[in-house]
Design goal:
Layout lengths: L3 E7 L20 H6 L7 H6 L19 E6 L7 H8 L17 H11 L3 E6 L2 H15 L2 E5 L4 E7 L5 H14 L8 E10 L2 E4 L4 E4 L7 H7 L3 E5 L2 H4 L7 E3 L4 H12 L5 E7 L1 H7 L4 H20 L6 E5 L18 E6 L6 E7 L2 H10 L23
Parallel strand pairs: 1-11, 1-12, 2-14, 3-4, 5-6, 9-10, 9-11
Antiparallel strand pairs: 2-13, 4-5, 6-7, 6-8, 12-13
């Protein structure tokens, strides 16, 4: 029988500040608690799996008979961004943070970018994407200059109106930027942010595309692919890993589309890993300080869980985790340094507490062990236990 592992990342679903949260300016952040405080959060299926039993979670009820295994994971990498978080989930710890630009990008870098693209630059500061196109959209349309901006993350974002700069050209401009952003300026992602003119002003389109830095070491995805198994990517996983280790990619237009794509793959006959990222939690709600919207998005995912669980075959395993936090109730609109949950369900998985673990890389070890691979990425499988004891039936 072919074993399949479905690993779903709820992008930014933190469950409370990491021990070093204050070092990142995030003391007191708790994304889950912020969603619960809205009074709108209804996630009975994740609670049934054991989310309320995870150590440190006090805003949800516990269950005496959890259906799944559960744990609290603390990030070891020196960062709180999507790229580093996913790399660690896949087994690669980053001891140094990727570069960020709180004062905008240096002129020598922008000069090289202008020469290579033949276009000027607008903005050049940390700012929300919607605010950037609101403030600079008119000037961009008048001049053709590109709106270049960043955030608290290691990103070089380029916004352009689709009628002024066709999407294919914007993607090529991003490839040029990616080739320039090396060495000390090797940001995690170059992001194309196309927009259009809508009824209420400028609106970003679904044709965003990330051009990521390749992982600095061999990842879980590489190990699964090298073993001759499938690595199916849903959402921006393929972008985050620069395509490395992915055998089949699937782009999505939001959480609902991502859930649909995941369910479709659960009906398919494959052997290996299906790695899913649901970005709306972070992009639409965390970064916009929309706690009610975040809670409703969690509710929507939770409603889809029974269908996912029903599709698990005898050898299949479903995992749910996150890559960082993005507390929608704090003044900041940036990511937050938080611990993340780990939930695991499958007919062969013994339910119960797997404790607290230092490092998201335990997820990679768990997937590898379940797929029969020798790799452990310096971690311990949550399907095996600290002493090698098996937690599978």
């Amino acid at each position: 029988m072919k074993k399949r592992v479905f690993l779903i990342v709820l992008d930014s679903f933190g469950i409370g500040g990491a021990p070093d949260a204050a070092d990142f300016g995030d003391a007191g952040s708790d994304t889950l608690a912020a969603c619960a405080a809205t009074g709108l959060l209804e996630v009975p299926n994740m609670i049934a799996l054991g989310l309320g039993n995870v150590k440190g979670v006090q805003c949800l009820p516990r269950t005496n008979q959890p259906l799944g295994a559960y744990a609290r994971l603390r990030e070891l990498s020196r960062g709180k961004d999507t790229t580093i978080g996913h790399w660690e989930i896949a087994g690669v710890i980053s001891p140094t943070p990727l570069p960020t630009y709180p004062n905008g990008f240096p002129e020598e870098l922008l000069d090289a970018f202008r020469r290579a693209t033949g276009r000027g630059v607008l903005c050049n500061k940390p700012i929300s994407g919607t605010e950037a196109i609101r403030l600079y959209g008119d000037e961009h349309l008048a001049t053709g200059d590109l709106i270049v901006y960043t955030s608290a993350d290691s990103v070089f974002q380029i916004a352009a109106h689709e009628e002024k700069v066709p999407v294919a050209e914007l993607y090529e401009i991003c490839r040029i930027a990616r080739s320039l952003l090396v060495g000390k300026h090797a940001v995690g992602r170059v992001i194309a942010r196309p927009f259009i003119t809508g009824e209420k002003g400028y609106e970003r389109t679904p044709r965003r595309h990330d051009f990521s830095l390749a992982p600095p070491a061999r990842t879980l995805l590489d190990a699964v692919k090298e073993a001759g198994m499938d690595v199916l990517s849903v959402g921006k996983i393929e972008d985050i890993f620069a395509g490395q280790g992915v055998t089949e990619g699937c782009r999505i237009s939001g959480n609902d589309d991502g859930i649909r794509a995941a369910l479709e793959r659960m009906d398919r006959d494959f052997h290996g890993l299906c790695f899913v990222n649901l970005v709306d939690f972070d992009m639409l709600y965390g970064h916009r300080n929309d706690a009610p919207g975040y809670a409703r998005a969690l509710n929507a995912f939770d409603r889809a869980l029974p269908a996912m669980m029903e599709k698990m075959g005898e050898e299949d395993v479903l995992m749910i985790t996150a890559d960082h936090g993005c507390d929608p109730a704090t003044p900041s609109t940036d990511h937050s340094r938080e611990c993340v949950p780990f939930l695991m369900f499958g007919p062969g998985i013994r339910p119960g507490d797997r404790g607290e673990r230092d490092g998201f890389h335990h997820v990679a070890a768990t997937v590898a062990s379940l797929l029969g691979l020798p790799d452990r990425f310096g971690a311990v499988s949550l399907a095996e236990g600290q002493d090698g004891h098996s937690f599978t039936h």
